[in-house]
Amino acid sequence: MDNIRELYQQTIIDHGRKPRNFLIMDNPTSFKMGHNPLCGDDLTLFLKIKDDVIQDISFQGEGCAISMASASLMSETLKGKTTTEALELFKKIHNMLLDGKEPDNIGKLTVLAGINEFPARVKCAALAWRTLEAILDGTDGEVTTE
Ligand code: ZN
What we know:
Blueprint: H1 3-17, E1 30-36, E2 41-50, E3 53-62, H2 65-78, H3 83-99, H4 119-137, E4 143-144
Parallel strand pairs: 1-4
Antiparallel strand pairs: 1-2, 2-3
Helix pairs in contact: 1-2, 2-4, 3-4
This protein binds zinc ion (ZN).
The site of zinc ion has 8 residues, from α2.
């Protein structure tokens, strides 16, 4: 058994079972719902952005362990980042989920790299990130991975 892979899996299981920042935010500056109909994952992402910096981030929803773990890991990573940095991170993670290559400087988000080996679960992991992108881009309406 590959120790790194095992560690990655444990981190995802831990975040899937006990998602961080899993709450409805009071007075968010923006929020958006996202759906992954393929798996049945639903989440609402809440952001508090001030002076172009993500002051706070949380989410609520129901879905598989991977969708919840990805949102949880994302929420831990984005606090204090500028919206430009957050969009750059979105692009890195999105590419990583598609090609499985780990980019530099993404910290614990590397645990999501292995999901590339399970094509049916890539959209589960991408859901929170696609929802984030839609908020930052100002895209109207609900987000769907289909
Ligand atoms: Zn899922």
